[in-house]
Amino acid sequence: MLAILLAQIPMPGTAQNDGLGIWTSAGVEKGLGKGLDLGIEAEYRLQGSRTDSRSISADVSKRLWRSQDKSFSGRIGAAYKFTNLYAPAETTYQGDVEDGIADGLDPEYYRENGLKYNYIYPYWRNRHRFSVQLSAKKELGRFTVSLKERYQFTWSDSIQVDRDKYRVMWDDDAQDFVIGLKSSDTKTKDIQRKHMLRTSFQLSYNIRSCKLDPFCGIDIFNNAADSLSLDKMRLTGGVEWKITKQQSLEAAYIWQDKASDDEASGSAISLSYKYSF
User: How many of the other CB atoms lie within 10 Å of CB of 226?
Assistant: First the structure.
């Protein structure tokens, strides 16, 4: 199933990709009775060789229904996630508008032709995400099919970042115009708001007399503020290891087709530990 999904989605060549991502998390889940569950999770992500984000989240969910044979059930839930997100250095080059030179050319072109650019230093930014979701799960023999519909509202705080401005200036020693540091200041990154509808489908298989259960899934992210236009898609394939009745470890390969403001495109390895009691 995962191979079929991969074959149908084009691999873009221009998306941001900073190397293999490593996503790790550890969480606890407590059953409070009558189908009510409470969970807390901490997450740490690497992108290539650098720390990409650190987050902590809390969620609560309630079972809405369950069939007599317990093979079909549905839940409703809500969650909050706080993330400290790393933003790498950013260089903005500006073309010569009068001559019709566009932005986005090779950086050496701007330097050689005396065109200005700005450099923004790396910074950390706080992000808050609130979500509500409906989910359903159905057991079909040893297969389990699950579907989740989640609405996410993400708020990124405004922040002051350090910026250097490089401009064309006269150099007395070189007796020529050169690119040089004109000034250093701060720039305000405004508050960012994002409304997203996320659809998650997963298929897992319970292998008889085995603690390893393979699974695969797809997540579709639609921009709720832009007529539900497609934002990105994510494919996942991995295994869940039931260490004990209360402990489980999940390892998965993740592929994402497009970069967003908080995640790079391309591949990531996910490792997740959960303790339930």
Answer: 10
Residue closest to 219 by CA, chosen among 193, 207, 201, 231: 201
Burial 55-66 (b: 16+ CB within 10 A, else e): bebebebeeeee
Render 80-141 in DSSP notation, one character per residue. EEEEEEEE--EEEE---TTTTPPSSS-HHHHHHTT--EEEE--EEEEEEEEEEEEEEEEEET
Number of CB atoms found within 10 A of residue 166's CB: 19
Taking residue 181's Cβ as centre, other Cβ atoms within 10 Å add up to: 11
Please give the biggest Cα pair distance in the chain: 87
pLDDT in tens, 54-76: 999 999 999 999 999 999 999 99
Cα–Cα distance for residue pair 18/51, rounded to 1 Å: 12
> Residue 76 has which token pair?
């409703």
CB atoms within 10 A of CB 115: 21
C-alpha–C-alpha distance, residues 169 and 184, integer Å = 15
> What is the pTM (predicted TM-score) of this model?
0.81
- Chain segment 197-233, per-residue pLDDT in tens: 999 999 999 999 899 999 999 999 999 999 999 999 9
- The DSSP letter of residue 157 is -
Find where tokens 């994402």 sit: 256
94 φ, ψ (degrees, to nearest 5): -115, 125
